[in-house]
């Protein structure tokens, strides 16, 4: 929800006499939380489509919930929703579900953490190694160690005493979330002429791709280029569709999870490529 809200705030600032002026052309949002109700209502159909819910349970949930799963309105609906096994990794349904790991900050413990969390390490090239973790969250532990290293902080220009411990997701910030949907924000930005790229990792059940496509349909945009594959290195990297004279482009990233670039960095780099001579999404198999 942050991206369209911040974009609209910049646009409003540009319309005032405040400085500086930002030459804003558009925005990009990946697996974006957009409408809490729409996002959550798409989870059960997504899990069923991926073969993680039986036909019988899915049909019973549809019948009792009326396809509105985010706020069960009766006991049968609530029972159906609760019966769905949640012991899967919602960020990427194919990866193992791991507990949140707490990491030490001091460098003296870094080697112990690595040896405990590393599944294997194999040489990839003469000057490089690929570290394979049993769980993706293990790499987040090392990230915390790295980001809190005094040498790293000094290199980044973080002055001592100005910033406390770095956290990947700081959930201790005290604020009230009162924006439940930003669908209208997206529509306002497009009416103002801003271009948007919205993309989804297609194995994310936190913000399923079908939920993102559902709120895009609410924008009632005409289709410029219909559903088609896009390619990286001659292979299908996902599927894409363009709307309203290319003011909005939607794409899936095949095999990616909630933070798509974390799972498929090369493919996401192709989406974000600023090179004017290269298509943002190549729809030709080279």
UniProtKB/TrEMBL annotation:
Name the domain of life this protein comes from. Eukaryota
Give one GO term, molecular function aspect: serine-type carboxypeptidase activity
A Gene Ontology biological process noted in the UniProt record is: secondary metabolic process
List UniProt keywords, sorted A-Z.
Glycoprotein, Signal
Q: Which SUPFAM superfamilies match?
A: alpha/beta-Hydrolases
User: InterPro entries annotated for this entry?
Assistant: AB_hydrolase_fold, Peptidase_S10
- Report any Pfam family annotated for this entry: Peptidase_S10
- Protein family (similarity comment): Belongs to the peptidase S10 family.
Q: What is this protein called?
A: Uncharacterized protein
Q: What is the lineage of its organism?
A: Eukaryota, Viridiplantae, Streptophyta, Embryophyta, Tracheophyta
